[in-house]
Design brief:
- This protein has about 130 residues and is mostly helical.
- About 65% of the residues lie in helices and about 0% in strands.
- Helix 2 packs across helix 3 and helix 3 packs across helix 5.
- The chain is flat.
- The termini are far apart.
- It is found in: Nucleus.
- This is Chromatin accessibility complex protein 1.
- Pfam families: CBFD_NFYB_HMF.
- GO terms for molecular function: DNA binding; nucleotidyltransferase activity; protein heterodimerization activity.
Length: about 130
């Protein structure tokens, strides 16, 4: 515990890149959390860092940014949409659409009720046709 805490207190040889103070604030924002053990804080930071690396690497390898030697937002949103592991991020990394297209969707929603349900049914029907 103490050795780890000493290593975390700064310097070039930090084991985590993310700021522990920020992570502590985020963890404390949960009503169930009263106190945070230093090791738990470190492990949460390290796990978060590794997760972000994995998301970025996966998105880069499977995205179009590879052609330009860059990781793009659309690579990340495509990963969130297509890869089951990352689907819980779909609301956080939505696909970018043009404002005009969004306004048309809102108008259609007002006319037809819920858009989302209709779209999902259409996609399922298309999948069946291909099979």
């Amino acid at each position: 515990g103490e050795k780890m805490a000493a290593r975390l207190s700064g310097g070039e040889n930090r084991l985590v890149s993310l700021p522990l103070s920020r992570i502590r604030v985020i963890m404390k924002s949960s009503p169930e959390v009263s106190s945070i053990n230093q090791d738990a804080l470190f492990l949460t930071a390290k796990a978060t860092e590794l997760f972000v690396q994995y998301l970025a690497t996966y998105s880069y390898k499977h995205g179009r940014g590879k052609e330009k030697n860059a990781l793009t937002y659309s690579d990340l949103s495509h990963t969130a949409e297509e890869c089951e592991t990352f689907q819980f991020l779909a609301d956080i990394l939505p696909k970018k659409i043009l404002a005009s297209k969004y306004l048309k969707m809102l108008e259609k929603e007002k006319r037809d009720g819920e858009v989302g349900e209709d779209d999902e049914e259409d996609e399922e029907e298309e999948d069946e046709d291909e099979a």
